[in-house]
Design goal:
Elements (H helix, E strand, L loop, with lengths): L2 H21 L7 E6 L6 E3 L3 E7 L3 H4 L1 E7 L9 E4 L1 E3 L4 E6 L5 E11 L2 E18 L4 E3 L2
Parallel strand pairs: 2-9
Antiparallel strand pairs: 1-3, 3-7, 4-5, 4-8, 6-7, 8-9, 9-10
Length: 142
C-alpha cells in the first residue's frame, strides 16, 4: 500500500468520526433493572407474574417501556409482549406477564421513543412447567 492511499484512507476515517459522534442520540436515560416476582416453586406457564422495570427517566422524557422475549431456545424469540405501566412515584414500570412457553428465556425491557432507541436490559428466567392460576397462587400441573 503506498503512502498516498494510506493518508487518503486515514482522512476518510477521521472525517467520519465527527459525523458518527454527532449522529449518536443523547442517551441519558436508562433501564437500570429488571425483575420478576415469583414464588419459591418457580415460574409456571399459565400463571401471571409481575415484571418490574426500574428506569432513571420518566416515560414522558425517555419513551415507553416495552417487554419482550429475546434469546433462549423457546419459541417466540423476539416476540413483543406489551407495554409496561409507568409509576412515577417509584420510578418503575410494571407488566403482568403470563408465560406461554416453558424453558429458559430472556425477558427484555426496552425504553425508547418512536424511531429512537434509548436503552434495554434483560433478565434470564426459567419457566419450569405449567400451572393453574388461582388468582392468589399458582398450582403446579403435572
Amino acid at each position: 500500500m503506498n503512502v498516498r492511499t494510506r493518508r487518503f484512507g486515514m482522512a476518510v476515517v477521521l472525517g467520519a468520526v465527527p459525523t458518527m459522534i454527532m449522529g449518536v442520540p443523547n442517551a441519558t436515560a436508562a433501564v437500570t433493572g429488571v425483575s420478576v416476582e415469583q414464588s419459591s416453586e418457580g415460574l409456571r406457564g399459565g400463571c401471571t407474574y409481575t415484571v418490574t422495570v426500574a428506569v432513571d427517566a420518566p416515560v414522558s422524557e425517555a419513551g415507553e417501556v416495552t417487554i419482550g422475549i429475546s434469546g433462549g431456545p423457546v419459541p417466540g424469540n423476539g416476540e413483543r409482549l406489551g407495554v409496561a405501566v409507568y409509576h412515577p412515584e417509584s420510578g418503575t414500570a410494571t407488566f403482568a406477564w403470563t408465560p406461554k412457553y416453558t424453558g429458559r428465556q430472556n425477558l427484555i425491557a426496552q425504553q425508547f421513543e418512536p424511531g429512537e432507541y434509548t436503552s434495554a436490559q434483560y433478565i434470564t428466567v426459567d419457566v419450569v412447567g405449567r400451572g393453574l392460576d388461582t388468582g392468589s397462587s399458582c398450582l403446579p400441573l403435572p
